[in-house]
Amino acid sequence: MDQALFSSDSINRAEAKAIIQKYGWPTISEIGKDGQNNLWLLVPHADDDVCFQKQALAGMLPFRIYALTYGFHYVPVTAPQAQAKERADSLYTQRLIDSAQHFYLRKDFNQAYNYYNAASMI
Asked: Would you call 65 helix, strand, or coil by DSSP?
């Protein structure tokens, strides 16, 4: 069972990486709400691939993600106030990811998960 999950996870992550590298972070209009949600769920669960998580985060920076009842809603950042908030949120998210990596390297996986989880909620 563990081997099957690992194999499936590896395949899904490779496909997600290829999509993000080729097209950047896709929008809901490109892959639908379910596709967007599923792609997003791969990122915080890729604990052993911090580079992928950082790449995905960089791909999301042009968008501000707001969680709705179902899926995610993207609002392009245009106003100076929104851009300032986006920069602050981006820096905070990056600090959370850096903290997660710090705990991951120390094999404190519970703390690493908590920081990744917090980063995914920004």
From this structure: strand
DSSP string covering 14-30, please? HHHHHHHHHH-SPPHHH
DSSP sequence for 22-56: HH-SPPHHHHHHHHHHHHHHHTTT-TT-HHHHHHH
Residue 74 CB contacts under 8 Å (≥ 6 apart), including other chains:
27, 28, 63, 64, 65, 66
What are φ and ψ of residue 20, in 5° steps? -65, -40
Claim: this prediction has a pTM higher than 0.85: no
- pLDDT tens track for 2-55: 788 778 888 888 998 898 888 888 877 788 878 877 888 888 888 788 888 888
DSSP symbol at 78: -
Domain boundaries, the chain: 2-120
